[in-house]
Design goal:
- It is globular and about 50 Å long.
- It is of the alpha+beta class and 190 residues long.
- A 10-stranded mixed sheet has the order 1-2-3-4-9-10-6-7-8-5.
- The longest helix is centred in the first third of the chain and has 11 residues.
- The protein has one domain: DNA-binding pseudobarrel domain (At1g16640 B3 domain).
- Keywords: DNA-binding, Nucleus, Transcription, Transcription regulation.
- One of its GO terms (molecular function) is DNA binding.
- This is TF-B3 domain-containing protein.
- It is found in: Nucleus.
């Protein structure tokens, strides 16, 4: 049995405003334990067909953040049908590193779900909503498995869409048939 406690756990609970009833994901894959809050769509379609596995298929991981109640409601309104994206969508807030320093990295799980290999380089399309204009951005997969976007393309996207620090966003990855693009990253503001 693994016990999680101490000052780090207390800080996590306080930072994420954990009150009970939240689903917490524990990852033991790396040297450091990683924790995340997972949001599950609790819409009641048909009580007879409720299955815990189906609920977890629709779960969305929050990257180092917690959504307000209003943001959670909006999240489920904007999430595309499962067939529209690859891998697990996730939510995060735009940080000063992302906006001011123009550094954007996607989790290793997204790269793996799209079949992107380590040390791979290529081009991705980034758009705000599925119908938005596409900004082409060069990417490289770091040795830690995370996809790192070129600062010039990412900066161009941020400026063109007037995005700023603190905005909650939903990120989904989609396959694309556009020539020269390996994947499409769709960002929705929550």
């Amino acid at each position: 049995m693994t016990r999680v406690g101490g000052d780090g756990w207390v800080r996590f609970i306080a930072h994420m405003c954990i009150t009970g009833g939240e689903l917490i994901s524990f990852s033991f894959k790396a040297e450091r334990l990683k924790l995340a809050v997972i949001y599950v769509n609790e819409a009641e379609d048909d009580e007879d067909d409720e299955d815990d596995d189906d609920l977890l298929d629709e779960a969305i991981v929050a990257q180092r953040m917690r959504l307000s109640e209003e943001e959670v409601c909006k999240l489920w309104e904007i999430i595309p049908p499962r067939a529209d994206f690859v891998g697990v969508p996730f939510v995060t807030r735009l940080t000063s590193t992302m906006v001011d320093r123009h550094v954007m990295k996607l989790p290793k799980s997204l790269s793996e779900s799209c079949g992107i290999k380590s040390d791979e380089e290529g081009s991705a399309g980034i758009c705000l909503t599925a119908r938005g204009s596409v900004t082409t951005c060069v990417y490289v997969v770091d040795t830690d498995g995370r996809t790192h976007f070129n600062s010039v393309g990412w900066k161009s996207f941020l400026i063109g869409k007037n995005l700023h620090v603190g905005q909650a966003i939903l990120i989904t990855t989609r396959n694309t048939h556009r020539p020269g693009l390996r994947m499409m990253i769709v960002i929705n503001i929550i």
